[in-house]
Amino acid sequence: MLRHDRMFAKTFGPANTTPLISAATRGHAEVVKLLLEQDDFGLGEMAKDNGKNALHFAARQGHMEIVKALLEKDPQLARRNDKKGQTALHMAVKGTNCDVLRALVDADPAIVMLPDKNGNTALHVATRKKRAEVFILCYLYTIAYMITVYLEYMY
């Protein structure tokens, strides 16, 4: 279908999802990569009514290969937030894949400090979810970022 009409990739279906969001949610990495290859118009930035984009869904589901592909296409997706103010990092800490968390922070270390509309950072969400490994990783990334900012300020 994409060969005949590239705009198909940009259409929203009855569930208010694009083909990219559907593929990212379900873990279809090859489909995601194919869609991203055809992307001339910011597919990654397209979001559902709730503001969640393909990266939010892939991060929540722990689909590492898809998270990497989306970040390679547009590293700024890591900063995009949904209507609750949550980034893909907020979504990743709700899951259990620490590699996804690492990939998101590697793409943009400052996202560890971004709060949602209720003032919660990813560390707050990780604390509530009571997942020790995710919490520790978020905590360490937060401390590392704060030290980096402090050192840049001091020198």
Report on this structure.
One of its GO terms (cellular component) is plasma membrane. ANK repeats lie at residues 15-37, 50-82. The chain is mostly helical and 155 residues long. It has one domain (6-154): Ankyrin repeat-containing domain (Serine Threonine Protein Phosphatase 5, Tetratricopeptide repeat), CATH 1.25.40. The protein has eight helices and no strands. The protein has helices at residues 19-26, 29-37, 54-61, 64-73, 88-94, 98-107, 122-129, 132-154. α5 (88-94) runs antiparallel to α6 (98-107), α6 (98-107) packs parallel to α8 and α7 packs antiparallel against α8 (132-154). The radius of gyration is 16 Å and the shape is globular. The mean pLDDT is 88.
Q: How many angstroms separate the termini? A: 55 Å
Radius of gyration: 16 Å
CATH superfamily descriptor: Ankyrin repeat-containing domain
Binned, the helix content reads 40-55%
Question: Segments where pLDDT lies below 50 for 5+ residues?
Answer: none
The sequence of SSEs as H and E is HHHHHHHH
Mean pLDDT: 88
Number of domains: 1
Shape: globular
For the record, the CATH architecture stands as: Alpha Horseshoe
The CATH topology is given as: Serine Threonine Protein Phosphatase 5, Tetratricopeptide repeat
Oligomer: single chain
How many strands, which pairing sense, and closed or not: the largest β-sheet? none
Question: Structural class of the secondary elements?
Answer: mainly alpha
Strand proportion: under 5%
CATH class placement: Mainly Alpha
ANK repeats: 15-37, 50-82
Transmembrane segments: 134-153
InterPro entries: Ankyrin_rpt, Ankyrin_rpt-contain_sf
Keywords: ANK repeat, Membrane, Repeat, Transmembrane, Transmembrane helix
